[in-house]
């Protein structure tokens, strides 16, 4: 039910990318939805798990995947990170030209130190990003990402409903793909290889 609600909300926010058209392979043979030319998700200003300010330009020359989640997420976030770890394994040497980014939507609990422990546990090359509450709200708005506390919202035992897709940028820093949650690692790896090859 929750995934249906999030999917419906994503559509209302303009993420029509959740439903690829035609043969489902996009205009250049991508399995993910090709959103090249979209007028959102252009950049971010956040702090990485080492305390360094980051923007998309810092990763120029690499394919970048960007996912929004939080460390206490019970299922979707660890599943996504495990999937991306397998994607990196399948890419072999090409994985060195890919940067996986995890942006927390729960900066109140996800400190820089916690991100530094959690995110690289899936793959040492993965990087966690965070901002304060206003910065988190701003980047979520720019990327059309939904997130909302549920449960004990006045305490520390809350959960966070959030969008579940992953964005992919080409080595020139252009937004290219929207990858649905649950996609198979080999399918994602094939799409990222195409971006690395300049498609």
Can you characterise this structure?
With 199 residues, this protein is of the alpha+beta class. 28% of the residues lie in helices and 21% in strands. The strands form two sheets. The chain has an eight-stranded mixed sheet. Helix 2 packs across helix 5 (185-196). It is globular.
Summary of the model, kept short:
Helix 2 (76-91) packs across helix 5. This protein has five helices and ten strands. The chain has helices spanning 2-12, 76-91, 112-118, 133-142, 185-196, and strands spanning 33-34, 46-48, 53-54, 63-69, 98-104, 127-130, 147-150, 159-162, 166-169, 175-179.
In N-to-C order, the SSE pattern is: HEEEEHEHEHEEEEH
Beta-strand portion reads: 15-25%
Helix content: 25-40%
The span between the termini is 36 Å
Tags for this model:
8-stranded mixed sheet; 5 helices; 199 residues; globular; disordered N terminus; alpha+beta
Topology diagram in text:
Blueprint: H1 2-12, E1 33-34, E2 46-48, E3 53-54, E4 63-69, H2 76-91, E5 98-104, H3 112-118, E6 127-130, H4 133-142, E7 147-150, E8 159-162, E9 166-169, E10 175-179, H5 185-196
Parallel strand pairs: 4-5, 5-6
Antiparallel strand pairs: 1-10, 2-3, 2-6, 4-9, 7-8, 9-10
